[in-house]
Amino acid sequence: MNEGVLTALALTAALAMATSLALLLIAPPLAWWLARSRHAASSLVEAVVALPLVLPPTVLGFYLLLAMAEDGWLGGAWRALTGQPLAFTFSGLVIASIIYSLPFVSQPLTASFRNTPPELLDAAAVMGIGPIARFLRLMLPLHWRALAAAGVLGFAHTVGEFGIVLMIGGSIPGQTRVLSILLFDQVESLDYASAHLTAGLLLAFSLAALTLTYGALRRR
Amino acid sequence: MSLRLKGTAESASGFRLQLDLKLPSTGVTALIGASGAGKSTLLRIIAGLERPDGFTVAFDGQRWDPLPAHRRPISMTLQQPALFPHLTVAGNLKAVPGVKAIDEAAARFGLQGLLARKPATLSGGQQQRVALARSYLKPAALWLLDEPLAALDPLARSALAPMLSGLCRTLNRPVIYVTHALAEVLQIADHLVIVEAGAVIGSGPPETVAAELDHPLSPLIDTGAILEAGFDAYDAKNDLSALRFGRQRLWVRGDLSDAPSPLRVQIPARDLSLALEPPARTSILNILDVTLTGLAPAQDGTLFAELDCAGQRLRARITRRSLENLDLKLGMALFALVKSVALDVRPG
C-alpha cells in the first residue's frame, strides 16, 4: 500500500469518525422531536433533513460552496470565529458531511422512536421522570440498536461520499483527498492497479458496515 | 380533604367526558363503569397524562391541573404493566427517581426471585406485580390503579386480587381504583363512583350509591344493590356460609368465618326474581322477605321493582308482563328469589 492510499485512508476514517460522532449528538434529539411532534412545521423540517437523499450531491455541494466561500455567510462566520477558511478544508468537509449524512442517521432513529409503546412514556411520566431524563435515561438505552445502526450508517455513508467532497473539498492530499476522491484520481491517471486496491477497500468496508447494521436492526 | 374534578374533555373520536365531582382524599375510591365509559380517561386526567383545557384538578385545595404528570404527587399503574424491556426487574424498580432500597417492595409483591430477570421472561401476572411494586415505591399523595387486574388471566387474577385488596386496606394512602368489575372493589371501597357514557351517574358510600342511582341499571353495568351482612355460621358439609342482616339470611359459597365483618354483598337487579308465595321445591337457596316500595321504568322497557328488605334496599328487574300477571301493588309483601350473590371475599 503506498503512502497516498494510507493518507487517504486515515483522512477518510477521521472524517467519518468526526461526522458520525457529531451526528450521534445532533440526530437523536432531532429524531425524537420529529417522532413526537404533531406540529405542522415538523413535516417541513423532516423534508429538509431528508433532502440529501434525493438531491444530487452536486446541488448541495454547489450551495455549500457558495455558503462556505470567504464572502459566504458560513465561510465568513467561520473565519470570524476561528480565523480559518472553510472551503477546501477538513473542517468544511466535516460540516458538509454532517448535513449530507444527517438523514441516514436520523431516519432509522425516527422510525425506531416512533415505535416506542406509548404506555412506556406514560409509565415514565407517572413515575416522576421528567421529559429530558425520560429521553436520556430511558429512551436512548431502549433504542440502543437503532442508535448503533444509525451510527454505522452515518459512518459508512460518509466514507462513501464523493460528489459533495469534490465540490467543496477538491483533492488536497491529507486535507480533503478521501478514498473516493483518490480512486477518481487513480482512474483518471489510468493507475488501475492502485484503483483496484482503493475500490476493493471501499467495497469491503461498505459491505461489512451494512451487514453489521442490518444485523443490529434484525435482532429486536 | 377532597379531590375536586371539574371540566369537560373531548377526544378526537368525539367521546365527551363531562363532570363536576368531589371525591374524598382518603381511603379507597372505586371508579366503576363499563369499558369506554370514560373512567380510564378520568384517571389519566387526574394523573396529568391528559390535560384538557380548563379542566380543574385540585387535591386538598392544591391545583394540580397546571402541573405535567411527572410533577404531580401521584403514583399510577396503567392497564398494561408497561415495564421497560431493556431493564431487569430490579432496574425497573430502581428507575423510580430517588428509590434506592427495593427489598421491602420486592418482598411485599413476591419478586425476590425475579429481580435479575428481564420483563420478557416473566408471566403476565409477574409483570403486573412488578408494575404494582414500581408504583408502590414512588412516594405519592394519591395512588391511581387503572384496571390493575383486567389484563390478567383468571388464575393470575385470583392470585393477585386478595393481595391487592389487602394492600389497599392496610396501606395508609388514598387510592383511586378503576375497574369494570364491581366485585373487585366491593369489600375495599369506601366510596363508589359510577361512570357511564362520559358522565358520573352516582357517587357515594357503596351501601347507598347503588340503591340511589337514578338509572339503576345501565345496559352494561348492573350494580343492583349492595347490602351489608354479618357472618353467621358455616356449613362445612356443603361448603356454604350463612350471612345475616336483620332477620334475613343469605347463603353464599365458601368458608367466610375469617372474613372481615361486616361483609358487602352485591345482588344484581337481573338476578332477583319476585314471587307472591314462597316457592316450594326450588334449587334457589336464598329467598328473602321483601316489601315493594316503588316501581321505576328502565331504559329498555322493563321495570325496576324497588324493594325493602330488613331496612336495606334491593332492586329487581322485571317485565311489564310480570307486573300485570302478579298484579303488583306498592306495599305488597313479596318473596325475592336470589339467583346469584356477588361477594368476592377472599381474605388476603
Kindly provide the radius of gyration of chain A, computed on alpha-carbon positions and rounded to a whole number of angstroms: 19 Å
Write the CATH homologous superfamily of the largest domain in chain B: P-loop containing nucleotide triphosphate hydrolases
Biggest sheet, spatial arrangement of strands of chain B: 6-7-8-3-9-10
Question: Might you state the CATH topology name of chain A?
Answer: MetI-like fold
Helix residue percentage of chain A: over 70%
Q: What would you say the CATH architecture of the largest domain in chain B is?
A: 3-Layer(aba) Sandwich
SSE sequence of chain B, one letter per element: EEEHEEEHHHEHEHEEHEEEEEEEEHE
CATH class of chain A: Mainly Alpha
Most strands sheet of chain B: 6 strands, mixed
Largest interface: which pair?
A: A-B, 20 and 28 residues
Residue runs with pLDDT of under 50 for 5 or more positions of chain B: none
General shape of chain B: globular
